């Protein structure tokens, strides 16, 4: 499991810039980022170098912030690699709430961040299919 930061922001110009500037000013590195939006608000999901420090810094800027668990899965970096992972999850009836990618140089795998409806079986499913999760430390996350 990896800790993910979710920031609820107004869907207005400059809001994402403000969040990223706050993280920069506090020495926090963004390792992965995803934005989901509606007409009025957005959810900025991030893997950051220090999730607790990031939450504290953003809370001081009156941001609504939460921390939750996600899984980072090493996906074979070849055609069909993601399809293999998604099929294994489907075969095990594991529902995906959302997912996004993470780039890490110097590895033979691609990484996907998953938030699963019920991840209790994830490790068993991955192991049975020759796949693995990626620990936070390998990604430079605290």
DSSP helical segment count? 4
Low-confidence stretches at least 5 residues in length (pLDDT < 50)? Answer: none
Alpha carbon gap, first and last residue: 12 Å
CATH architecture of the largest domain: 2-Layer Sandwich
Give descriptors for this structure:
Alpha-Beta Plaits, 142 residues, seven-stranded antiparallel sheet, alpha+beta, 2 domains, VC0802-like
Q: What do these coordinates show?
A:
With 142 residues, the chain is of the alpha+beta class. It folds into 2 domains: 2-69, VC0802-like (2-Layer Sandwich); 70-139, ACT domain (Alpha-Beta Plaits). Helices cover 27% and strands 39% of the residues. The chain contains 4 helices and 7 strands; from the N terminus they run E-H-E-E-H-E-H-E-E-H-E. The protein has helices at residues 15-25, 51-60, 81-91, 122-128; strands at 2-10, 30-37, 41-48, 64-76, 96-102, 109-116, 132-133. Strands 1, 2, 3, 4, 5, 6 and 7 form a 7-stranded antiparallel beta sheet that branches. The longest helix is centred in the N-terminal third of the chain and has 11 residues, at 15-25. The radius of gyration is 16 Å and the shape is globular.
Kindly summarize this structure in a few lines:
The protein is of the alpha+beta class and 142 residues long. The protein has two domains: 2-69, VC0802-like; 70-139, Alpha-Beta Plaits (2-Layer Sandwich). The chain has helices at residues 15-25, 51-60, 81-91, 122-128, and strands at 2-10, 30-37, 41-48, 64-76, 96-102, 109-116, 132-133.
């Amino acid at each position: 499991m990896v800790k993910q930061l979710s920031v609820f922001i107004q869907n207005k110009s400059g809001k994402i810039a403000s969040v990223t500037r706050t993280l920069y000013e506090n020495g926090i590195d963004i390792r992965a980022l995803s934005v989901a939006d509606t007409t009025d608000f957005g959810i900025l999901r991030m893997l950051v170098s220090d999730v607790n420090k990031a939450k504290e810094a953003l809370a001081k800027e009156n941001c609504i912030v939460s921390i939750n668990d996600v899984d980072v899965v090493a996906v074979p970096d070849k055609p069909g690699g993601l399809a293999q992972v998604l099929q294994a999850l489907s075969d095990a009836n594991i529902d995906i709430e959302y997912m996004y990618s993470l780039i890490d140089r110097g590895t033979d795998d691609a990484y996907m961040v998953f938030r699963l409806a019920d991840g209790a079986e994830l490790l068993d499913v991955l192991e049975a299919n020759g796949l693995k999760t990626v620990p936070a430390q390998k990604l430079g996350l605290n």
